[in-house]
Amino acid sequence: MKLSGRFVFVFQWIAPVVLIGWVLFGRGLLGAPLGWLAAIGLFLSPIALLAMYIPPVLVLFDREARMSARTRQGYEIASYTLWGVLVVMGIVIVDGGDAGPVGSLLTMWTGMDAGGGEVFLVPVMLLAVVALAAQLVMAVVGIVVARKTAPVAAR
Q1: How far is the C-alpha of 13 from the C-alpha of 18, rounded, in Å?
Q2: Which of 14, 16, 20, 12 is nearest to 62 (CA)?
Q3: Is residue 152 part of a domain?
Q4: N- or C-end of the chain: fewer Cβ atoms within 10 A?
Q5: Is 124 exposed, middle or buried, given 0-12, 13-18 or 19+ CB atoms closer than 10 A?
Q6: What integer is the mean pLDDT of 125-137?
Q7: Is residue 61 part of a domain?
Q8: What is the pLDDT of residues 4-31, one digit of tens each?
Q9: Is 1's pLDDT higher than 50?
Q10: Residue 92 — φ and ψ, nearest 5°?
């Protein structure tokens, strides 16, 4: 558990709110139009927040991580992967309006049509789900390892 583990231990509590806000509204800050996804996202974001806060809560059951305020390396890798994928998702996510798709930051920057931008969105969304699952698995692995290496209490 290195210095990076301390950053992950703290940022894991901030990242869900910041990154979901980025995915929903960040592209609007950089000039891409916002459509219905932003409105629908307000209703779906609590579910995503809940899913993203499960691994940090599980990390609290990892005694070694909690006592040192650092996370394990596998959890760090899964967390950085998830956070990076969500930043990319905010760039490639195509929004829609009443007149059809309105594009994304990627389509705005490159000039490609919204259909071309959607080609990038599906793999990025799949990667986000896999990264979240990996983060959850690594949190559970940390708990199991901490319980196996914990000293047995005297009776």
Answers
A1: 10
A2: 12
A3: no
A4: C
A5: middle
A6: 95
A7: yes
A8: 778 888 888 999 999 999 998 888 888 8
A9: no
A10: -100, -10
- Could you read off the pLDDT of 71-124 as tens digits, one per residue? 888 889 999 999 999 999 999 988 876 677 777 888 888 888 877 778 888 999
What does pLDDT average to over the chain?
Answer: 85
What average pLDDT does the segment 57-80 reach? 83
**Going by C-beta distance under 8 Å and a sequence separation of 6 or more, which residues neighbour residue 68?**
1, 5
C-beta of residue 133 within 8 angstroms of C-beta of residue 78 = no
Evaluate whether residue 155 is within a structural domain: no
Asked if 32 contacts 101 with a C-beta cutoff of 8 angstroms, the reply is no
Give me the number of domains the chain comprises. Answer: 1
Domain containing 101 equals: 3-147
Within 71-112, strands assigned E span 95-97, 100-103
Q: Is there a domain that residue 16 lies in? A: yes
**Residue among 147, 135, 146, 123 nearest 11 (CA):** 135
User: Phi first, then psi: what are they for 71, rounded to 5°?
Assistant: -100, 165
Q: What is the mean pLDDT of residues 20-43?
A: 86
Residue 104 exposure: Cα atoms within 13 Å on the Cβ side: 23
Token reading at 113:
């049509």
Helix (H/G/I), strand (E/B), else coil: 47: helix
